[in-house]
Write a structure and sequence with these properties.
Bound molecules: adenosine-5'-diphosphate
CATH class of the largest domain: Alpha Beta
Radius of gyration: 81 Å
Shape: rod-shaped
Number of strands: 23
CATH superfamily of the largest domain: PAS domain
CATH topology of the largest domain: Beta-Lactamase
Structural class: alpha+beta
CATH architecture of the largest domain: 2-Layer Sandwich
Length: 754
Amino acid sequence: MKIQTKIVLPIFIAITVILSLATFYSYFYSAENLKERIFAHLETTAQSRAHNIETQLEMEKELIQSIALIGKIEKLLLTSGNDSSYDEQVLAVNERLQKIVNSIDHVLSVRVLDKDNILIASTDPELIGSDYSESAFFKENPERKTEIKFVDDPDLGVVLGIVSPIYNQETNEYLGMVGGITSFKHFNEIVLDKTGLGETGETYLINEESYAISPLAQTENVILEQKIDTVNSSKCFSYVEDEGEHEEHEEGHIKQYGEESVEIFPDYIGNSVIGTHVHIPEMGWCLLAEIDESEAMISIKNQLIFAITSILIVFVILFATIYFVAKYITKPITLLKEGTAIIGKGNLDYKVGTDSDDEVGQLSRSFDEMTKAIKKSRAEVDQKVEDQTKEIRKNADQISKDKNKIETIIQGIGDGVFVVDVDLKITLFNPVASRMSGFSEKEALGEKYQNVLKFVYESDTDKVNDKFIKDAIATGKPQSMSNHTLLITKKGKQISVADSAAPLINKKGQIVGCVVVFRDATKEREIDRMKTEFVSVASHQLKTPLTGIKWMSELLLREKLNSKQKEYALDVNTSANKLTKLVDNLLNVSHIETGKKFDIEKVNTNVIKLIDSAIKIVEKNNNNKKIPIVKSKETPSKLIINIDPGKIKQAISNLIDNAVKYSKQGGTIEVSCLQNEDGIMLSVKDNGIGIPLKQQDRIFEKFFRADNVVQYETGGTGLGLYIVKAIIEAHGGKIWFESDENEGTTFYAELPVK
Ligand code: ADP
């Protein structure tokens, strides 16, 4: 519901209800009042007219009584009919009576009766001598009182008959009666007077039998014919019947109902009227006064119409006023609402502020302030978003470029590349990997890598070789695929492969997967195999003549030779020894390369003795620099271990020989051998030229020689450490070293006891 409606509706309803109640209350109150006033007016009129009638009746009676006192009449009545003056007296009385009739308009006739009710004088002389004994006047009036009666005379019509007794003034003896007939006209004049009764109001008289005795306004020829049987008439007479229960008014002779609400009842022709009545006890009549309800109520109806019209006009004016006032009050709110809707759609430049000083005006201005603040902060946010978007876009471009670059590299790389996540599922698979394995990129992505890329050992194709991948993920360090690994393709073909696995580490340092690079090593293997075969064959072929040369040179040295000859024979012997050693090394290498294990024959050996022996050999053969070779103080004199003494001695000799070779004059070599929980730990420490850091990881490769030794010592082959490592590993041991360039090197070899 709108605020305007909320304001208009309750006010309008409240005012409407109050106004309607007030109007209708005042209408009903004034209607009741009006009825009471009309009734009171009617009542007053009726009473005044009844009073007039009673006065008139009294006057009639007094007139006849005054005639009864006329002396001539008394005298006539005292005179006997036989008396000579009797006729004269009759004429005189007749004359007198005629004069009275002539002088009083409404008196129609006057008659004198003697005590026997015989007419003796009259304004109608022809009636003289008539007997009135049977007249109702005398029959019903034994006491001979002055009496007045309503008479419907066949000759005179409706008249009033009045009788009054005549007494002897002296003796008070009853002499006779005077009777007068007067017209009823002036009573009609009283009741028919319309004054104060409006259009439809009337007053009329009814006798004690309820017959109308005066004309009625609404019907003709009614005198003593129209019976009035209405609420009004019956109430008037019920008073007479039940006199005691009613209050008296107007000196006790005009009575009517007392306090009663105004009654509306049907009149003699059934019209709805308001009426009242006054009883006239003298004659037993009732004067009824009535007025049409429609006429009486017309002003009330007019008042009602006026009230309703006024209410309607007031309603319209009221509604219009409230509506416009409410509109005026709510206008700023409406503007505010429209404004907020516009602002809500995003137009922050819109101003809802209104000029009004009231709360709504203040609210609208506050709203503008708020919108301004929002606009400002939105502009700031927009700027920030724009800046960040630019940054993100830049980064995204860079990432996209980097990604494209990486993808291009990976796609174009000559080796097989695939990436697995920590669940070992393939997330990247390059074309070379696809070509080598026979699986498409689509088939590979999302699959567990061992379902697609089956790496097995060459020596045992049923055994899966995935240790290097698992180790890379577990340790977070790059791992190499062990030699002699085969890849079984989709079609079941076996390909020799080589290469490595590197862990993928995210910015938080978490390992998220592993990237594996592998290549087809079939040709390399073939070449290696051919080379090894060649070396093996060549070495065997060289060994026989070399042994001959060595043997012959030794024989020669035993002969008596001059110094020059001895020097040559010694050179021949030394070179033959070097060559023999080289050939032995090559043969060892070829053995290693072909995968054949060394023929290790383990016997319980005192390894300390082997060390001593190795030191002696080195000192004898190769220690021109006279570098002292010592055993550490901790080294025991005896340490029995189950090893191949020949091979281990070869390894120890090699390590000590290298230490001597790569030490400068003045250096020291310390050999140590200690037993620990796992086995024995052998070390050879020198303070020689050391191994450059960047080449340390290649030291155990065959034929590899560090840059710093190539010029320093030309005699090396790069095979010694390769063979030493193979010997130690063949015993289930480990070999490693620590070295700082120009500081020295320590080689460690650990051999398990079991
Ligand atoms: P070489 O016949 O060259 O000695 P090795 O296989 O025995 O072959 O050694 C390989 C290489 O390791 C050497 O050429 C040298 O660069 C390095 N090396 C081995 N031992 C030492 C050492 N004690 N001090 C410095 N470098 C060493």
